[in-house]
Amino acid sequence: MLELLDTIDSLVWGPAMIALLLGSHLFFTFKTGFIQRKLPKAIKLSLSSDPEGKGDISHFGALATALAATIGTGSIVGVATAILAGGPGAVLWMWVTGLFGIATKYAETYAAVKYRVRDHNGFMLGGAMYIWERAFRLNGAGELDPSPGGRTPWWAKLGAVAFATFAAVAAIGTGSAVQASAMTGIITANAPGVPAWAVGIAIVVLVSAVIFGGVGAISKVCEKLVPFMAVAYAGGCVVILVLNGPLLGEAVGLIFECAFTPKAAFGGAVGSGLMMALQFGCARGLFSNESGLGSAPIVASAASTRNPAQQALVAMTGTFWSTVVICALTGVVLVSTMLANPGIAADILANPTVYTGAQLASEAFAKIPYLGTPILVFGMVAFSYTTILGWSYYGNRCVTYLFGRYAIRPYQAVYVVVAFFGAIGVGDVVWTVSDIGNALMAVPNIVVVLALSGMVARETRHYVWDGNLDEADKTPIPQLDGK
């Protein structure tokens, strides 16, 4: 089974997917007028609130929830596994996917907010499934009409159902099992007397206490945890970089060299090649920032905003923080630590397991006297916990689209049960299935956003580049019956 999954994983993350992702990132960068230039404005906007906006949670609440779902194992263990599988060069490709992925995150969020709807209670629903559902809807005269009275073509409905289905499944793997597995790995490695089942029960209790309260409860927890845990983790990385100061130049040089040429690193323990570095760098890059995946726009659609451009700008800062900053820090920390301690890579690869990436991260942070290991353990546990919370909301909204509101509670129950099984050990299968699920949900999302790129570019020019960012979008948000 594992060999079959590995084969499927290699196919879906082959040259076609890499070209689709990187090509989309570059395309949207130019299509939006290099929207990355607006990062300072976007960061400032993310810290503000707008009482005149339409939505359920604040700009920062939506960003914190999205960051909670992205700054997780992908930012620590994901970077480590990318280095061990694709060589140090994978770090550069992760960073590149983040830098240009900022534009894709902007575009997909813009489309999601523009085509969001309200549920039976008036709460916002959005994401690629509603983009497919509304953007191509036709009225009786055969004209485009996103109102509820229009008719959605079968192929658009298929795109919507495909995305929602893949996302609901991916949420269980990426958001629940993978994170619970990572939490158990880091806790039991540093506290051997704690049984995995006990960690699993604790995860179920702590997750259930929040996710059954809806997006409001999830965003409140994430608003408090995310800034604190990110600063603490980044601070630990900076300390390690200072300790490894004499090797930083060599580490950065090795990352660039291995990104473009075949080279054995760390005494021959880790090999690299362009395609391997590209494959694992892009795959883990998407896993860390989710640009093009279509996940973050689901919660961004619930944000209180005057127009789609405002929340799209806020959402794109998530990619900046998660990959351009956090993953880059992690990558340089790990590479410089392996250069400073050549035996680490050889010892880890002598007995590779699903926890190899976590082990590498543990070895690096252990170099900080007294505080290193506690910082990593806290960071991994907090990152994984908040990721479970964030992805639970994504799965919740997708299940609502597919089956209606009565399917939410059963899905949440399955979600926490899977977290328990992830905690007690499901091995390499979890990571592989998550990789496949991420790729499958990315395809319908990227396709629909590419199809609407002209609209995104045109309206971005009006709101962002023509200075109308404070203008309210007066288009009514339709309410769905029976959802």
TrEMBL record:
User: What Gene Ontology cellular component terms go with this record?
Assistant: plasma membrane
Top-rank taxon: Bacteria
Extract one GO molecular function annotation from the record: amino acid:sodium symporter activity
Q: Can you tell me where the transmembrane regions are?
A: 12-30, 60-84, 90-107, 154-174, 194-218, 225-244, 313-335, 375-394, 414-433, 439-457
Q: How does it sit in the membrane?
A: Multi-pass membrane protein
Localization (cell): Cell membrane
For this chain, the family text in UniProt reads:
Belongs to the alanine or glycine:cation symporter (AGCS) (TC 2.A.25) family.
The record, for PANTHER family, names: AGSS FAMILY TRANSPORTER, SODIUM-ALANINE (PTHR30330), TRANSCRIPTIONAL REGULATOR, LRP FAMILY (PTHR30330:SF3)
The protein in question is named: Amino acid carrier protein
Species of origin reads Rubneribacter badeniensis
